[in-house]
Amino acid sequence: MTKKGGLSRPAGGAASAGGADDAGTPEARVLRRFRLVFNAVKTHFQQVEKKAGIGGAQLWALSVVRANPDIGVKRLAQAMDIHQTTASNLVKSLAAMELLVIERNGPDRRAVQLRISASAGRVLRRAPGPFAGVLPEALGRLDPETLERLDRDLGSLLSELHADKRAARIPLAQM
Predict the structure, then answer these.
(1) Is the torsion defined by CA of 26, 27, 28, 32 positive or negative?
(2) What is the average pLDDT across 152-166?
(3) Which of 6 and 38 is assigned the larger pLDDT?
(4) Domain of 94?
(5) Is 3 helix (H, G, I), strand (E, B) or coil?
(6) How many CB atoms lie within 10 A of CB 169?
(7) What does DSSP assign to residue 106?
(8) Per-residue pLDDT at 21
């Protein structure tokens, strides 16, 4: 064992399959894994913005609307698992960029129906996927038992952090 920065580290330190160094305390190894997750998410959203010219949350919203023509803001928020106010703000910004078409048909003129514009179709064609982001995509490939365990373990971590639960409905692309 060697000491580095106050942490005990086993000699050697071969890389693991996840690319993180296996050396160090369990806390250091887990921290490195979180860094890898955050970096993968950040890199994806940077690529999205570079290729598509819009942010990741905006791109995701467009993809949901394309898949669900005439969707309303409430259903868009549910599909993206975000707060309705956040979805409303996304809709306003996308409409201002002329990427979304907003119509008010039917008896309740307050309710809106959303569709993508032709220019939004071009944005979606040039954008790298997955539109929802790499983290939701990866989580969707995990087996139910792994997801349950991860949910419990992250719940314990969030309890230790005294995290603000309101942040759970903010898209990662907007953080």
Answers:
(1) positive
(2) 93
(3) 38
(4) 2-174
(5) strand
(6) 15
(7) S
(8) 65
pLDDT at 56 over 80: yes
Largest CA distance in the chain: 73
User: Token pair for residue 100?
Assistant: 């979304």
pLDDT band at residue 14, thresholds of 50, 70 and 90?
A: very low
Class of residue 23 by CB neighbours under 10 A (exposed 0-12, middle 13-18, buried 19+): buried
Contact 104, 111 (CB under 8 A): yes
SS3 state of residue 99:
coil
pLDDT at 9 (0 to 100) = 39
CB of 60 closer than 8 Å to CB of 132: yes
Inform me whether the pLDDT recorded for 74 exceeds 80.
Answer: yes
The CA-based angle 109-114-115, given to 5 degrees, is 140
Structurally, the chain folds into a number of domains equal to: 1
* CATH code assigned at 83: 1.10.10.10
Report the predicted TM-score, pTM, of the whole model to 2 decimal places.
0.77
- Number of Cβ within a 10 Å radius of residue 132: 22
Buried b (16+ CB within 10 A) or exposed e, 67-85: eeeebbbebbbebbebeee
